[in-house]
Amino acid sequence: MPSVVNDSCIKCGTCASVCPVSAFHVCDTQMVVDPDTCIDCGVCISECPQGAICNDAEADEKWVKFNAEQAKVCPNAND
Ligand code: SF4
Ligand code: SF4
Description:
Layout: E1 3-5, H1 14-18, E2 24-26, E3 31-33, H2 43-47, E4 53-55, H3 61-70
Antiparallel strand pairs: 1-4, 2-3
Bound molecules: iron/sulfur cluster (SF4) (2 copies).
C-alpha cells in the first residue's frame, strides 16, 4: 500500500528528505508520492508535520488518483 499525500501538505520537504527511494514529486500545490516507486516503509507518514500522508487504504480515492497522475508529470523532489 503506497503512501498518499493530501492537500494538507505545505511543501516543507521533510518527507522527501527521509524517503529511502525518492518517491516524492513536487507539484504546484503539494507533494505527491509515485505509487510505483514507494516501497511502503511508512517513514514519511510519521515525519510529516501536517499529518498529510497516509497509506492508500486509508486515503480518499480522490487523493490516490491525484498522487498517481501527478507523479507522472511533476518533477522528482530529489532531483
Ligand atoms: S512532510 Fe508533509 S507537509 Fe511536508 S512536504 Fe511532505 S507531505 Fe507536505
Ligand atoms: S512510505 Fe517510505 S518509500 Fe513510501 S513514500 Fe513514504 S518514505 Fe518513501
